[in-house]
Design goal:
Elements (H helix, E strand, L loop, with lengths): L1 E6 L7 H8 L5 E4 L8 E5 L2 E5 L12 E4 L4 E2 L1 H13 L8 E4 L3 E2 L2 H13 L13 H9 L12 H22 L7 H15 L3 E2 L1 H10 L4 E4 L23 H6 L10 E7 L2 E3 L11 H10 L12 E3 L1 E2 H11 L3 E5 L9 E10 L2 E3 L6 H6 L1 E8 L16 H14 L3 E5 L7 E3 L7
Parallel strand pairs: 1-10, 1-11, 2-5, 2-10, 5-7, 6-8, 7-9, 11-15, 14-16, 15-19
Antiparallel strand pairs: 3-4, 12-13, 16-17, 16-18, 19-20
Helix pairs in contact: 3-4, 5-6
Bound molecules: guanosine-5'-diphosphate, 6-O-phosphoryl inosine monophosphate and magnesium ion (MG).
Guanosine-5'-diphosphate (GDP) binds next to helix 1 and strand 3.
Amino acid sequence: MNLVVLGAQWGDEGKGKIIDFMSSVADVVVRYQGGNNAGHTVVLGDKKYVLHLIPSGILHEGRSCVIGNGVVIDPGYLLEEMAYLAKNGIGLDGNLHISENAHVIMPYHKLLDRLAEEKSSKKGKIGTTSRGIGPCYTDKAARLGVKMADLLDKATLTEKVKASLEVKNYLITKYYGAKGFEAGQVVKEYLAYGAKLKKYIGNTYVLLQRAAAKNKKILFEGAQGTMLDVDFGTYPYVTSSNPTAGGACTGAGFSPSLIDKVIGVTKAYTTRVGEGPFTTEMPVELNEDFRGRGNEFGATTGRPRRCGWLDMVVLKHAHAVNGFHSLAVTKLDVLSGLNELMVCEAYRYRGKKLYDFPANIGVLRECTPVYRAVKGWKENICDVKTYVKLPGNTKRYIDMITGMSGVPVSMFSVGPDRDQTVITDKGLWK
Ligand code: GDP
Ligand code: IMO
Ligand code: MG
C-alpha cells in the first residue's frame, strides 16, 4: 500500500503532522522534492520538532526514511538536522537513506538566491526562503549540478565545481558586485560533508522497489503545496519543484502504477508565505486575528504567514491536478468562536465568474472572491475524538468541503498534537 500525502494549498497545511500520525502504520516514509525550504512541525506532548529535510516519519522508532532523488540537499544543514535528532535520542543509523542522485545545494546557490531577491524590484521578488532552492534546481536542469554521489568522488566534484564557478563567479562579482568563491575551498568543505554522509548515501529507488515488492507500506511526504508547484502553481510565485502527485514518482523513482492513493492536506482556511496573488486574503485586522489564533508564523523563516478564507477554486484545482482520493482537513479548531465563515466558491474577473483557476498571473491579480457565507460554531473542539461528537456546524463545514470539491474527508485535525487527529475513513490503508 503506497500513499502520497501532499499539500493542497500554498504549503504549511500540516503535512508534517499528518505524515507523523500516519507513520505509526507506515514502514517507509519518503521525501520526494524540495529541500530545507520546507518546515514540517510535529508536536508530541510538550515537545515540538520541526523537520526541514528528513521525513516526518523519523519520530517513530525503526521507520525507514528516504530522501529521494528529487530533493535538493544542503549537506551542512542536513548534518545539523541529524545532530538535532540524535541529541533528542532519535536514531538514524540504518533508518536514513539518501539518494545518490539527489542534487546538492552549493554555497553559491544560497548566495545567488539571496542576491537575486535583494536586487529584484518589489514586484519581481518571490519572497524565497533564501535556502538556495531555485538556483540549485536551475543548475540541475542546466546540467551543471552536483549530485550526492559526487561528494564521494574528489575528481568529479573538483571538475564540476570548477566548471560551475567559472560562470557563477563572473555573475556574482561582475553583476552583483559580491565576493566570489574559491573552488578548492568549496571542494574541501563538500568532500568533508561527503565523508560524514557516506554511509547513508545509496540507491534509494531500488530500496523502494524492494519494499514495494514485500508489500511494505510506503508514504510519500510532499513538501510545499500544489499552489507552489512550478507547473501548476501561481507562477512565478512558486518554488522550483513539483510537489504535486506526479512529483512523487519522478522524485523518488517510483512507478505511478504502484501508487494506491493520493491524500491532499488542506487547512480549514488558507495561508501563504512570501509574495504573490492571494485572492481570499483577509483584510489586515482579521489577518492578524487569524495569525494569532492559528499561530501562523513560518516554521522555516519565522515570517508571518498571510491568512485568508478557504478557497474552493484552489481546492478544486488541486484535485484536478492531483486526483485526490481523500482530504485531511487541519486546523478546524482555529475556526471555533467565529459567527460566520466565508468560503470562496468562484472568482470574479471583469464581471465574469471563473470556476477554474486561471493560468495567467495578470488575470489572477485582478480576480476577486465570490464568497458563500456559512455559519460558524462557538464550541472548543480541541478534545473531540470522533466526527459524531463535532458541533453540527463543524460537521456541515466538513461536509460542505466534500460537497464542493467532490473529495471525501478521511481525516481531520483539531490541534497540533499527534493525538488531536481523527480518522473518519477506517479503510484509509486499504
Ligand atoms: P507543514 O509544512 O505542512 O508540515 O505545516 P507546518 O508545520 O509548517 O505548519 C502547520 C502548523 O500548524 C504547525 O505549527 C502545526 O503544529 C500546526 N497544526 C497542524 N495541525 C493543526 C491543527 O489541527 N490545529 C492547530 N491549532 N494547529 C495545527
Ligand atoms: P512546507 O513544506 C510555505 C515558498 C516561499 C516562497 C516560494 C519560493 O513547510 O509547506 P523557495 O525558497 O522555495 O524558492 O521559495 O515558496 N515556500 C513555502 N511556503 N511552506 C513551505 O514549505 C514553503 N517552501 C517554500 O515562501 O514564496
Ligand atoms: Mg511548513
